[in-house]
Amino acid sequence: MIDLENLEREVVACRACPRLVRWREEAAANPPARFAGQTYWARPLPGFGDPLARVMILGLAPAAHGGNRTGRIFTGDRSGDFLFASLHRTGFANQSTSVARDDGLELRGAWVTAVNRCAPPGNKPTPQERDTCLPFLVRELEALDSARVVVALGAFAWDGALRALGIAGHPVPRPRPRFGHGAETAVGPFTLLGCFHPSQQNTFTGTLTEPMIDAVFDRARALASGQVAPSGGPSRGR
What we know:
The protein has helices at 2-13, 18-29, 67-70, 78-89, 127-143, 155-167, 200-204, 210-225, and strands at 48-49, 55-59, 110-114, 149-153, 184-187, 190-195. By secondary structure, it is of the alpha/beta class. It has a single domain, classed as Uracil-DNA glycosylase-like domain (Uracil-DNA Glycosylase, subunit E, 3-Layer(aba) Sandwich), CATH 3.40.470.10. It has a six-stranded mixed β-sheet, sandwiched between helices. A hairpin with a 2-residue loop joins strand 5 (184-187) and strand 6 (190-195). The radius of gyration is 17 Å and the shape is globular. The model is unreliable at 232-237 (pLDDT under 50).
């Protein structure tokens, strides 16, 4: 727990990527009308959840007016609404919504984090910004010593997870595993599990449905408990 607390302090204080610092602060200074008058977090976001988690849930980055506003990843935006509802249905969360850091949400057996800790313009960090942030994810994986499953929400998170696991000394399979919804691959002691990102583009079009995301988290729980072995392969996805 101490390692996670130290890591959180370092993440929150980071100003290593000038473009992202400008963007997160500009978003806070110019909020949409529905958030006018609210005080924005406007800093990098640490992960949060159960420090004894066996499942890590990995996203791309905070949303400019979601986590960048609330101070907690996936909190206060439509993607988070879809994600936390699923975590509640599958037994990983005590409630189905998350609107603020102090709203009573508790995760059980899960830790939620992201490859990049600052909101990027257009939700697209540069490769340099990704690589600058990756050491935080590597240390998070090492600090969560009970974690055995990483659920990657989207292709960017899948790629970031493979990079971080490789940096941490876990051999990445060759050929490099491809992302897809329901894709699974073993990387050292971890199972990497793919899930379409719960973006509005995916959820509004039916690319990702409630049964689909629930099945991923049910599978993650079974894998984390050792009830089943990793299997299967990738499907096409986003």
